[in-house]
Amino acid sequence: MADVLRSGKVGILVGGGPAPGINGVIAAATIEAVKNGAEVVGIYEGFRWLATGRLDDKHCRRLGIDDVSRIHGLGGSMLQTSRFNPTKSEKDMQNVLVALRNAGITALVSIGGDDTAYSAYSVSRRAEGAIRVAHVPKTIDNDLPLPGSTPTFGFETARHVGVSIVQNLIKDARTTLRWHLIVSMGRAAGHLALGIGKAAAVTLTLIPEEFHHRLVTLEEVCDLVAGSILKRRAEGSRYGVAVLAEGLLESIGEQGLRKSLGDKVERYGKIKRDPYGHMRLGEIAFSRMVKDMTTERLETLGLEVTITEKDLGYELRCADPIPFDAEYTRDLGYGAVKFLRSEAARSGAIINFAGGRLDPLPFEVVIAPDGGSVQPRRVDVGGEGFASALQYMIRLEREDFEDPVRLASVSGAAKMTPDEFRRRFGYVVGLPWS
After folding, report:
1. Confidence label for 297 from pLDDT (cuts 50, 70 and 90)
2. Quick check: 55 and 13 in contact, CB under 8 A?
3. 237 pLDDT more than 90
4. Dihedrals phi, psi of 11, to nearest 5 degrees
């Protein structure tokens, strides 16, 4: 099997946003490939320079064992990364294949999330076996469709660092009697927000999955936050921490934002899209948007509440990996090269481990039926994991409206009559008469 690698070179590239553990994959894949007689070429900035049709020394480098032997514990990516999408242009895709072939690269290890996975799949399909492709799934969002509860690398470190930050903010909220509103990265799924919120025991966590793919309004999100604040006040506490998944912003959508805010939407940033067509969520100050609207809604009730906002994500992406990810990425890098040495690699696959054994997932199993994307793995809001999370949140529930004592308490905190409170907030718990 080693002869397959000795006949050419192994290219390694990184696409998409950073995640803790990238360097661990690069190191493990390089070491294993070199040990099997291959030459390894590290390609800078994902597919960006491949799409020009050629690789020069400025945009790639030869990697040896000495170059990578101690990088596995470092955050970031020694090969940088980019979100360049070669699949948007037929010419770009042809150039990628030309550049790889001219460089003598016959096997490719791509490291990235769903968009990079689709680009890697496109290379594998078009090369028709001439370039073997192993894609190592990476995202702190944990939303790639790996079987069962297998995490994507980087998620555990991101959650670990995020929990540490949020726990400090909980202490600050308790000390200063304020609310901290935190928006966590997580475009398509709420795994990171829920993981951080649940482990840190925050007051409230909101994720897009709980709305069951229906239209979500900015007003509803703000009323859910306001309802948590009011319920806490009814219990005698004037502080708390809420964690929102940034994917809520995409669930609301551009039209929803403009409907709620009108021309004011420009106060919170310009709505732009990345090369893959996604809204650039980082360009929109979602946390400030929710803070401002929630504050206004509470002020109309005659309540003065101090809310501060924080976006949580960039602090997590290039953190040094915790031991879980340091070990996991070594397995993934090793597994990528082992797969490339097999005959199955002629069709390409996403590297996956099940029960401690290499279990590659053919691209065709993961790519969406429309052939244009990878289906995201979302939080199972029908499972016990989410049910458990709900039990330890403080948020408006149907019982708060159906139990007269509870309704009187929370409506009193809002300076409203029970009927007024029911008419104003009942819809957030799905009351049919609201």
Report:
1. very high
2. no
3. yes
4. -95, 145
Rounded to the nearest 10°, the torsion over CA 110, 367, 346, 153 is 40
Question: Binning pLDDT at 50, 70 and 90, where does residue 368 land?
Answer: low
Q: d(Cα 45, Cα 333) in Å, to the nearest integer?
A: 19
What single letter denotes the amino acid at residue 207?
I
Q: What's the burial of 6, exposed, middle or buried (CB within 10 Å: 0-12/13-18/19+)?
A: exposed
349-350 and 179-184 beta bridge pairing: unpaired
Q: Which domains does the chain have, with CATH numbers?
A: 2-153+321-366 (3.40.50.450), 155-317+394-424 (3.40.50.460)
Chain position carrying tokens 């996991």? 328
Tokens of 264: 């004011």
- Would you say residue 49 has pLDDT above 80? yes
pLDDT digits (tens, 9 = 90+) for 379-418: 999 999 999 999 999 999 999 999 999 999 999 999 999 9
Residue type at position 248: L
- The CA R_g of the chain, rounded to the nearest whole Å, is 24
Question: Which three-class secondary structure string do you get for the chain?
Answer: CHHHHHCCEEEEEEECCCCCCHHHHHHHHHHHHHHCCCEEEEECCCCCCHHHCCCCCCCEEEECHHHHCCCCCCCCCCCCCECCCHHHCHHHHHHHHHHHHHCCEEEEEEEECHHHHHHHHHHHHHHCCCCEEEEEEECCCCCCCCCCCCCCECHHHHHHHHHHHHHHHHHHHHHHCCEEEEEECCCCCCHHHHHHHHHHCCCEEECHHHHCCCCCCHHHHHHHHHHHHHHHHHCCCCCEEEEEECHHHHHHHHHHHHHHHHHHHHHHCCCCECCCCCECHHHCCHHHHHHHHHHHHHHCCCCCCCEEEEEECHHHHCCCCCHHHHHHHHHHHHHHHHHHCCHHHHCCEECCEECCEECCEEHHHHECCCCCCECCCCCCCCCHHHHHHHHCCCCCCHHHHHCHHHHHHHHHHCCCCHHHHHHHHHHHHCCCCC
Cα–Cα dist 249/216, whole Å = 9
pLDDT tens-digit map of 61-91: 999 999 999 999 999 999 999 999 999 999 9
What share of the chain in percent tops pLDDT 70?
Answer: 94
Q: Report, as residue numbers or ranges, the catalytic residues.
A: 141
For residue 434, what pLDDT is reported?
45
